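Box 3.1 A note on notation
Throughout this textbook, protein chains are presented in two layers. The first layer is the amino acid sequence; the second is a token string describing backbone geometry. Keep the layers aligned when reading.
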Amino acid sequence: MAAPTRLFHVWVGAETGALKGVNLQRKEASNHAGGSGLSRARGVSALAWGDPAQTELLVACLDRSLSVFSTEKGKFTGSRRCPGGDGAFCGLGVLGSSVVTAVESGLIRLWGEDEAEEPLQELQAGPGLCRMRQDPARPHVLGTAGKENGLKVWDLQRPGEPLFRAKNVRNDWLDLRVPVWDRDLQFLPGSQRILTCTGHGQVRLYDPSSPQRRPVLDVTFGEAPLTALALPPGDTSVVVGSARGDVAVLDLRKGRVLRALKGFAGGVRGLQCHPRLPLVASVSLDRFLRLHGLSDGRLQHKVYLKSRLSCLLLNTHLDWEAQEEPPPQKEKDEEEDELWDALESVPTPRKSKKRKISGF
């Protein structure tokens, strides 16, 4: 019997449009699809919790639909369209009873509860947007970054101009301009500092509270484009993943690699750390969901999910350390015996003797 949807540790979005819930103890996964079924045109672009109790899951798809999935009922309970701008969703958040969406063309909109209602507010963050995230401590504050679209910090209460606009790093040793390509960003808890990772392999730390608009820390990791980053508990390290499947924990104080996380065979599409436990979950193009321990880098769980995966979201209200006992083997054997007893027996045909023909 599959685990109830409220007992899934991780929710994963797939390029097929499926929403997958995963119970790590049982290594079980269930697929859920919206009203129009599975389709690559409805590939999941972003996931976010719709309420603090984590009973409603917001699912943003490529066709610009936004669906609500109830983890208690185990089904989709609503859907709406979020038109405007071009490209897929690259950010999703919640502000009170409203939903914040961002698309690749840079249009950020605030949607109310009424499905027929026009957006309550909108701002233009610039084209080539790769990521929009909220500050967890100040949900009305947003960070945006993209390709040739440097880091900006916005306040939805005063959306006219950004609160902070990052300045590009200095020219390289050939005095050539360094291209801008920020792929992901995170707000450091307890401060105004922001981390970004770039498509050119850099991890950069910005501090809007200081007069310096250039990064206060600039570290290069690997040679492949960095695609995702996540913050472990505390503010002294960061987990980064690349398009080649390289994942590592970096020390923000000394700018060096603390440990590498092994076992990846495809580009990393999503990373998220547990807010209280030393754990990091990841999805990659090799179609696996993995859970690594941050203290030793050991792979704790690995679940094959069949589809190309695009994003993930952790259920942090669940007791991750509780061990669930597997079903007794005896019950399984009894079920198999009942199945075999219900089958009709088929007699085995006897081999007929060959008759001998005279003269041969």
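The chain has one helix and 28 strands. The radius of gyration is 25 Å.
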